[in-house]
Each structure stands twice: as structure tokens, then as C-alpha cells.
Amino acid sequence: MLKLFDAIFHIIDYKFPVIENQGYLPPQFLPGDYLTLMSNYELLGGTVVSGSFQGFDTQYLVSALSVLGKNYVGVINYNPHYTDLDIINLDKLGVKAIRFNIKRGTKDTIDLIEYASKRVFDLVNWHSEIYIDSKNIPSIKDKLLKIPRLVIDHLGLSKEGFKNILSLVEKGAYVKASGFGRLDFDPIWAIKQIIAINENACVFGSDLPSTRAQRPFLLTDIDLINNNFDASQSKKIFYENALKLYKVNF
Fold first, then answer.
1. What pLDDT was estimated at residue 79?
2. Dist. CA 102–CA 107, nearest whole Å
3. From CA 31, how far away is CA 13, in angstroms rounded?
4. Which of 13, 151, 205, 221 is positioned for an S-S bond with 129, CB 3.0–4.6 A?
5. CA distance to 4, 78, 85, 118, 244, per residue, from 90 (Å)
């Protein structure tokens, strides 16, 4: 059975607040739904990532992590009103990173990046995850380069800007091999270029339940990676790199 650490998926539970974003409300997707869909794999853990439609709510995340178990961690949308104690308490509950959704966010989101990233890194050693179309990276690259530990979602989404992703990888950024149905290019082509620079920089994610994606995640996306990389490379992409990134002691 193939081992995986899933570095990005969403849990959507309507017992907790869900906010319409750009006219979109996602379908419910509970921990049990996720585990059923991924039951063909040996799940070493994973990362529940807060979507834009969850705003600053963390109740759903604490609930989801309590169901999924100790090797699962969380990523939250950064709330500028958090006190240091709030952040420390969230860290104890399993949160390990903040996320900035620049693709669906506002200028206020961009303005927060540098300060917030340094704050949480210094306080609890969290990293920062960025959802951005890579062709838009040049306009904020100076801010991104000041982030202590940077992770880019979904291979940067666009072929036009992919060279910007490689530039960040050269500076130490991680990239999620996720959201294949959102891309306008071949993900294997992209992953090969990333690991040629740094074999530790790429982490797999299912992106379930693929909210707003042109096509949803397919189990064959995993096969695509497995069939195009040797065993050592696949292990790094599928779980070794992510276990280190999220500080999960398995």
C-alpha cells in the first residue's frame, strides 16, 4: 500500500461557519468522506487547509483534527487580531502554518504577508503558505523573499509564470504538487524542474474536495507521480518532505 502524507485538503463542515466567497459556497466534505476516498493508501497524516470560505473560523479545524488524529495538522487564514497567546494555543492544537489566499484575496492580504509571516515564525516556528497565480509573483516577490519559510500552492497554477516558481525554489521555497485540475501545464514537467533544483522542495497534496477546480482530484494523479519518478524521489514527494515541513514525528 502506497504511503502518503497529504499536504493539502479541505474539510467543510456546515456545523461551523462557511462564508460565501465570490458567489461560491462549497459542498460539505467531512473527515469521514476524506478517509473513505483515500482508503486505498497508507495515510501517514496530512494537512487540513483553511479555504477562503472559512474566513478566520478555527472551530471546524480543531474538530476535524480531533477526528483525523495526531499526525494531521492545520493551516489557518491569518487573523491580524490574534494575540500571541492565541497563536501559541493554536499551535498546541495542531496548527502549523498560516495561509494567504492572494488569488481570491485583497490588497490588505498582501500588505500583511511580511509582518505576519515573521511574527508566527519567530513565535511558534510556523511557515507561510501562499495561493497565487505564479505570473503575479513579480509584483510581490520582494515580500515573498522576506518570508522565513515559504510554501506555494498548486505548482503556481500557470505555465506563464512558472519560471517565477523556480526562482523561489532556488531561494528555499517549497511547492505543493497539488491541484492538477487547476493547471494549464503538465504537472510532471513542473515537478521534474523543481526537484532538479532541490529534491526536498516538493510535497504532494490531493486538494480534496477540489473546490472550484476545473476538474477534481483523481486517484490517477497519484499514479502519474508514482510512474514518473524513481522510488527515492517518490518517497520524498509523497511523504518524506512533508513530514519534515510540518514537523510531524511519525
1. 95
2. 8
3. 9
4. 151
5. 25, 12, 9, 17, 19
Residue 67: CB atoms within 10 A of its CB come to 14
Q: How confident is the model at residue 110 (pLDDT cuts 50, 70, 90)?
A: confident
The answer, yes or no, to whether the previous bond of 209 is cis (omega within 30 of 0) is: yes
**Amino acid identity of 40?**
N
Alpha-carbon gap, residue 152 to 23, rounded angstroms: 25
Reported as a single tens digit per residue, the pLDDT across 57-92 is 999 999 999 999 989 999 999 999 999 999 999 999
The predicted-structure confidence for 125-139, as pLDDT tens digits, reads as follows 999 999 999 999 999
- CA 71 vs. chain centroid, Å, equals 16
Residue 106 clears pLDDT 60, i.e. is over it? no
State how far the Cα of 120 lies from the Cα of 99, in Å rounded to an integer. Answer: 11
In this structure, what C-alpha cell is assigned to residue 155? 505548482
Burial (0-12, 13-18, 19+ Cβ within 10 Å), 215: exposed
| Domains of the chain by start residue, with CATH | 3-245 (3.20.20.140)
Residue 66 CA, chain-centre distance (Å), reads 19
97 touches 127 (CB < 8 A): yes
Q: What DSSP designation does 238 have? A: I
The one-letter code for the residue type at 27 is: P
Whether the CB-CB separation of 124 and 98 falls below 8 Å is answered with no
